[in-house]
């Protein structure tokens, strides 16, 4: 499987794990707690496979940047959390940084 596709699977699994963690209410609810363990297990396994090809700094930057944006959007959508202009600006800068790194950095080519 393509390492970038595996990284996307890892990010989505981490977002599912983090969303489940919030829903587990401190591991007091069974199914969200199980979702947390499964989500993070899949996330770290897939991330470990991507690190065979993608440099760790690049993989982690993409993982963290996209994960922050996705989990923030899910927090807004599912959990009713609000975003102020500073949060939106900050996420925009994170995404911009990930895009710049992937488009212009020689570190990304392997």
From TrEMBL:
Its main location: membrane. The chain crosses the membrane at residues 33-51, 58-79, 85-104. GO terms for cellular component: plasma membrane. GO terms for molecular function: transmembrane transporter activity. It is found in: Cell membrane. It holds the Pfam family Multi_Drug_Res. The keyword Kinase does not apply. It is a multi-pass membrane protein. InterPro entries: EmrE-like (IPR037185), Small_drug/metabolite_transptr (IPR000390), Small_multidrug_res (IPR045324). Belongs to the drug/metabolite transporter (DMT) superfamily. Small multidrug resistance (SMR) (TC 2.A.7.1) family. This is Putative mebrane transport protein. It comes from Bermanella marisrubri. The lineage of its organism: Bacteria, Pseudomonadati, Pseudomonadota, Gammaproteobacteria, Oceanospirillales.
């Amino acid at each position: 499987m393509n390492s970038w596709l595996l990284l996307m699977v890892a990010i989505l699994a981490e977002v599912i794990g983090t969303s489940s963690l919030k829903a587990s209410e401190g591991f007091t609810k069974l199914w969200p707690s199980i979702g947390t363990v499964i989500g993070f297990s899949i996330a770290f396994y897939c991330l470990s496979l991507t690190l065979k090809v993608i440099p760790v700094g690049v993989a982690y930057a993409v993982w963290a940047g996209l994960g922050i944006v996705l989990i923030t959007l899910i927090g807004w959508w599912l959990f009713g959390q609000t975003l102020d202009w500073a949060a939106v600006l900050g996420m925009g800068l994170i995404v911009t940084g990930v895009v710049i790194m992937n488009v212009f950095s020689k570190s990304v080519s392997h």
